[in-house]
Amino acid sequence: MQEAHSGAARNKPGTVLFASLIGTTIEFFDFYIYATAAVLVFPKLFFPAGDAAAATLQSLATFAIAFFARPVGSAVFGHFGDRVGRKATLVAALLTMGLSTVIIGMLPTYASIGAWAPLLLALCRFGQGLGLGGEWGGAVLLATENAPPGKRAWYGMFPQLGAPIGFFLSGGIFLLLSELQTDEQFFSYGWRIPFLASAVLVLVGLYVRLKITETPDFQKVLDKGERVKVPVVAVLRDHTRMLVLGTLMAMATFVLFYLMTVFALNWGVSALGFSRQHFLVLQLFAVLFFGLTIPVAALLADRYGRRLTLIVISAAIALFGLALAPLFGSGSTTQVTIFLCLGLALMGMTYGPLGTILSELFPAEVRYTGASLTFNLAGILGASLAPYIATMLANQYGLQYVGYYLSIAALLSLVALVLTRTK
């Protein structure tokens, strides 16, 4: 036991931060290539030919499956993360996500095996969600539980940076394929390349993860004999209030992101007349603002407090929802670019401190499970059906109702933050 403690103390800051960053980059790369393919590829190849709008909605429904799998992953991987340790659990979560993604790249299409194609796609999507459900919480704890005093939010933002980097890589590779291949080549085999390429990234992630040792906070739990027998039961029974409030405070983050990415891509290509390549370029440019504002938000959170920072940003997101329809619905390249940059900049501001504040809601002995559950339950409420709901609202009532949807989500997060007793 003492040996493990000494090993944990030898974790170098650079190694810890890179290990937390590389894992979430890979995980989000895998997750986003599915999100992009759910709009551009799967409706055509994995569902019966016919009504294009119906095929898109069915494809977005498979996209939602992962969000329902994520709380299961939180409970499963959280159990081992709080019982066995952060390191081994992070390795297992990465493998689960990576293997699911590679298999998607090898699946036969509807033309080859009929109804089995969407069923197998849904199963692999469940595997992706299962792995991500265990990955995010562990990566955040790896960073924050090794943080020096006064820098907890700064350390906690490194795994959060994996989201814009993963999105940039996934969008970039789809854009590159679109430029280098004809539509026939892309839909024949090109779309498989990002899924298969993730195998290389997973090997890199595993190499880095295997070099780290256990976190000091978890080692203290081991040394004091404070491990909980069934962490998920302890969270549900003893920390119900924090679980509910944490879920609600993260809700706006999820709604905002998936409106700015999956819904915006689908609506921009189908309703506003943008080409796939043109809109992907606009999104990739806007993602730079997502990445740049994450460290800014972390610095503010360490200086002024995580809670106050997120209260201000949630209010700004609620106001941004009212500007969604005028900016995005204009169809103007300039205004759509401004819309994407503003939205993703706000996304970075809310996402930067989120991992830190969610981890601080729970004691170390159930922190992996508690933080993971809040984050992934928020994914169900805020992201799983967001592209579906937004598409339906836009089609039936107009884009302004998509903006109202975002504003309501932001207000719910604002109320939860006000009611939460944390920094």
Task: Please name the defining characteristics of this protein.
423 residues; mainly alpha; Growth Hormone, Chain: A; 21 helices; disordered N terminus
Helix- and strand-based class?
mainly alpha
**Topology pattern, helix = H, strand = E:** HHHHHHHHHHHHHHHHHHHHH
CA-atom Rg in angstroms:
20 Å
- What is the terminal separation in angstroms? 33 Å
Provide the number of structural domains: 1
Query: What is the count of helical runs?
Result: 21
CATH superfamily: MFS general substrate transporter like domains
Task: Tell me the CATH architecture.
Answer: Up-down Bundle
CATH level 3 topology:
Growth Hormone, Chain: A
* Beta-strand segment tally: 0
Name the CATH class.
Mainly Alpha
Beta-strand content bin:
under 5%
Quick one: overall form?
Answer: globular
- Major sheet summary line: none
Q: Average pLDDT value? A: 87
- Report low-confidence residues grouped into runs of 5 or more: 1-9
Protein architecture, described:
Its main location: membrane. It comes from Pseudoduganella plicata. The chain crosses the membrane at residues 16-40, 52-69, 90-113, 119-142, 154-177, 189-210, 243-267, 279-301, 308-329, 335-358, 370-390, 402-420. The protein is an all-alpha fold and 423 residues long. The chain has one domain (2-419): MFS general substrate transporter like domains (Growth Hormone, Chain: A, Up-down Bundle). It is built from 21 helices and no strands. The radius of gyration is 20 Å and the shape is globular. The two termini are 33 Å apart. Mean pLDDT is 87; it is low at 1-9.
